[in-house]
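Structure first, sequence second, as always.
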């Protein structure tokens, strides 16, 4: 089987697992059911993923893929740091306010009491990776002399927190509909303006 077909089969499995997790919950979704939904043989399924935990990690990683790719492409040698941060912000907001991401977030929270390893897996596969990647980028900007940030760890967390705000919590609780593209752009504009004028441009 070609590499392209193998990768496509892997992506089909991840998409099927996503649908099954969201429809039936984590504990009620078996590897057998995922194999049937894909559809692939159990041997093929286990050839790609050792267990259900590995599949969930792949689901979260796929959701975060566009954000992580955007962050990887951020260039330290660019003269326009704000533009790089805007691209990261656009990708982050598109991710966290997507229906699938919100649903997976709710799933991790709902299962966290009985399956604490599930919420840890969710955090390690997505939010933690993104946070560490942004922190690394900010440290590189410090080292290049473009910025002077006393606490890059806090600065990375503050950037994402500004973009989530109360709106993300209300969407998680289904108290508000998903924001429109215009509303998301306004959120990015407001957060980035505040961030650039405050945290990044102040000498500490």
């Amino acid at each position: 089987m070609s590499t392209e077909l193998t990768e496509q089969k892997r992506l089909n499995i991840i998409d099927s697992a996503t649908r099954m997790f969201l429809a039936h919950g984590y504990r009620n979704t078996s590897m057998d059911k995922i194999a049937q939904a894909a559809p692939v043989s159990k041997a093929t399924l286990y050839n790609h993923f050792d267990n259900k935990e590995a599949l969930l990690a792949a689901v979260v990683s796929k959701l975060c893929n566009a954000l992580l790719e955007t962050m990887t492409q951020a260039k330290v040698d660019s003269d326009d740091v704000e533009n790089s941060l805007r691209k990261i912000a656009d990708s982050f907001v598109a991710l966290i306010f997507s229906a699938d991401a919100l649903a997976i977030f709710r799933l991790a929270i709902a299962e966290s009491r009985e399956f604490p390893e599930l919420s840890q897996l969710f955090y390690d596969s997505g939010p933690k990776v993104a946070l560490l990647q942004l922190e690394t980028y900010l440290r590189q900007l410090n080292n290049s002399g473009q910025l002077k940030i006393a606490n890059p760890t806090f600065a990375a967390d503050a950037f994402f927190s500004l973009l989530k705000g109360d709106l993300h919590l209300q969407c998680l609780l289904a108290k508000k509909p998903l924001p429109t593209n215009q509303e998301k752009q306004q959120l990015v504009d407001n957060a980035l303006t505040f961030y650039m004028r405050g945290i990044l441009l102040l000498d500490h």
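Margin note: The domain at 61-200 is CATH 1.10.357.10 (Tetracycline Repressor; domain 2).
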